[in-house]
Design a protein that fits this description.
2 helices, 14 strands, Thrombin, subunit H, 5-stranded antiparallel sheet, 2 domains, disordered N terminus, 43% strand
Length: 201
């Protein structure tokens, strides 16, 4: 005879229902809070490597300009350590639980890195005449130009200067050298070892 399995509803948010399965009654959390249609695991797993996390986040520059945000949209869902978020941002999430949140400034060295002078390169202006003289979309300072490396991969570069005989292209990440204001609201945390399913309703 198969063992009984206990199914507990952990979190309900944006029509996303997360379920967790316990193999036996002894393993069930000792305290379960009931609220509306939600049953919340009061053991509140903390974020660690491998945790499945659902959250809202925003990235902004020091002047308040929003770079990216999920607030008011579908939340982001990813597993810690899967490469979807830069390590410097993931490190700030460690130990957080359902309902936690913060807003803090991430130093540029822990965000998109330092500006590398070697990634700022100069090219003969003749190589870009067809772009500079395009009547429809003439290339200007601040425009992004895509280059192809020896492996066939596209590399974006930002036009920094247009001189008489050369053009200066910056291949650093556009946000390198910039401190980032990181705002987070944790919606759900699922342990790495949890036997779980996700149901959309």
């Amino acid at each position: 005879m198969s063992a009984k399995r206990f199914l507990i509803l952990l979190y309900v948010s944006d029509a996303l229902v997360t379920l967790r399965v316990w193999e036996n009654q002894e393993a069930l959390p000792k305290r379960i809070k009931l609220g509306g249609i939600s049953v919340i695991d009061s053991s509140e797993p903390a974020i660690g490597t491998g945790s499945l996390v659902t959250l809202h986040f925003s990235l902004a520059l020091s002047d308040g300009e929003i770079i990216d945000s999920t607030f008011g949209k579908k939340p982001a869902k990813f597993r810690i350590g899967d490469g979807n978020m830069l390590p410097g941002f993931e490190a700030e999430l460690m130990g957080l639980k359902n309902g936690d949140g913060f807003e803090k400034t991430i130093p540029h060295r822990n965000a998109f890195g330092e500006v590398n002078p070697k990634n700022i390169q100069r090219f003969p202006i003749e190589n870009f005449k067809h772009l500079l003289n395009d009547d429809m979309t003439a290339t200007k300072i601040g425009n992004v130009i895509s280059f192809t490396d020896a492996g066939g991969f596209e590399i974006p570069g930002v036009v920094k200067k247009i001189l008489d005989k050369e053009i200066v292209i910056d291949f650093n990440h556009p946000l390198s050298g910039k401190d980032i204001i990181f705002k987070v609201s944790i919606l759900s945390v699922l342990d790495i070892d949890a036997d779980s399913v996700v149901v959309k309703v």
